[in-house]
Structure formats: C-alpha cells, structure tokens
Design goal:
By secondary structure, the chain is α/β, with parallel strands linked by helices. It is built from ten helices and seven strands. It has a seven-stranded mixed beta sheet, sandwiched between helices.
Length: 218
C-alpha cells in the first residue's frame, strides 16, 4: 500500500529519472519554489503552493504560518508562541499521531466534541456550535482531517471560520484518489491544504505540498 509506515508508494520511472537530473543542477530555491507554486496553483485552484518534505512538514508550516504570519520576529521565536494566537481547534475524533506536527510548531490543540459514534455509545460527534464555542481570542486556526466519515463536514467548518475570520487547515495527506480532491478542499473554503507526495501521487516518499491562500503560503 501507499501508507507511510509501509514505505509509501512506488515511484514511476520518469519520476526517479527527474530526480537524477535535478541532482545535477544547483538552483535558487526561492525561484524553484516560486515555479512550483505556480504549478501547484494550476493543479489545485489555490492561489499558491509550497513543496516540503512530506505532508507532516506541511502541517507544521501551516500552523506556523497561522500563528506567526509574516512577522520575522515571531517566526524566529517559534516554537515559543507566547504573545501569539496559538490555539488550534480540532474535533476530538480526528486526533491522530500526525497532529504532533502542529504542536511541534508551538500550537496548543483545543479538542471539541464527544465521539460517541466511535465508542458505540451513540451516533453523535462534534457539531458546529461546539467548534464555535471553542473559538476565543487566542484561536489561530481550525484543523480538519479530511476523511469520508469526518464530522462535521468541511463546509460547516469553513462557514464557522469565515464568520470569525479564522483560517482552516486541512490534512488531506492520503485523500488521493480521486483526482478531484486536489481542488475539492480549496473549493469548499479551506485556507491551507496539505497533501502527501509519496502516496498516490507517485513522488518521493519524503515529499508533500501545501496549497492555499497566497499570504499564508508566503
């Protein structure tokens, strides 16, 4: 399979050959990222994109962007987030080991909802009012792990976020296929979406990309 713990997907020969060619050139990384950003934007419908060393790295960068913005002093202090908005609201049933990437950036996760449907005690999960109730003056972002069973749906999350002018980060690491998911989460209002490059995309295992709003990608 393509799961990280099973070493990820198998690269196509043309990908491996492209890596060999790239290893023989030196480039300005800012120019390379700018070119990659344009390609990612075309593929996803986002304003911009950024290549990093895996979807987990993209989540760390996303959290850092939401907390520090374009303030170089705040960037330099991370993961010390004192004086910053540093809380990320997340549905309890979506917690997993990879949300450590958010905490590594200095964010504190605020859990909402009781996942009764997973415990077999009922059918309830988190609801929109609980997410909204958890938003406060220190909220930096909302976090959504994309999955067919995720509750509440992303459109509900983004509606709450727009009301409070808070960005939404989506972990879509393993959400390909279908190919339409490349654009779906941006179309549903997500501000930053992380994809793995080493799964169905057939790229290197230690790769991923972040797409979303230009000022956050910056």
């Amino acid at each position: 399979g393509t799961a990280t713990r099973l070493s990820g997907g198998v690269m196509r020969p043309e990908v491996a050959q492209a890596m060999v060619q790239a290893s023989q050139a030196c480039v300005d990384m800012a120019e390379l990222q700018a070119a990659a950003s344009r390609e990612i934007a075309k593929a996803t419908g986002a304003e911009a994109g950024y290549v990093a060393s895996g979807a987990s790295a993209c989540l760390l960068l996303a959290a850092a962007a939401c907390m520090a913005g374009l303030d170089p002093g705040r960037m330099a202090r991370l993961p010390d987030t004192r004086g910053m908005k540093n809380e990320v609201v997340m549905v309890r049933s979506q917690r997993n080991f990879y949300d450590h990437a958010l905490r590594a950036a200095g964010a504190s996760i605020v859990e909402v909802g009781l996942p009764d449907r997973f415990a077999g005690a009922g059918v309830r999960d988190a609801e929109a009012w609980e997410i909204e109730d958890a938003i406060g003056e220190r909220t930096a972002a909302l976090f959504h792990v994309a999955d067919g069973n995720a509750q509440p749906p992303l459109k509900v999350m983004t509606a709450v976020a727009r009301k409070h002018k808070i960005p939404v980060i989506v972990d879509a690491a393993a959400q390909l296929p279908p190919q339409s998911n490349l654009q779906r989460f941006i179309a549903e209002g997500a501000d930053l979406v992380a994809f793995s490059g080493g799964k169905a995309l057939g790229g290197p295992q230690a790769s991923g990309f972040l797409c979303g709003r230009r000022e956050l990608i910056m």
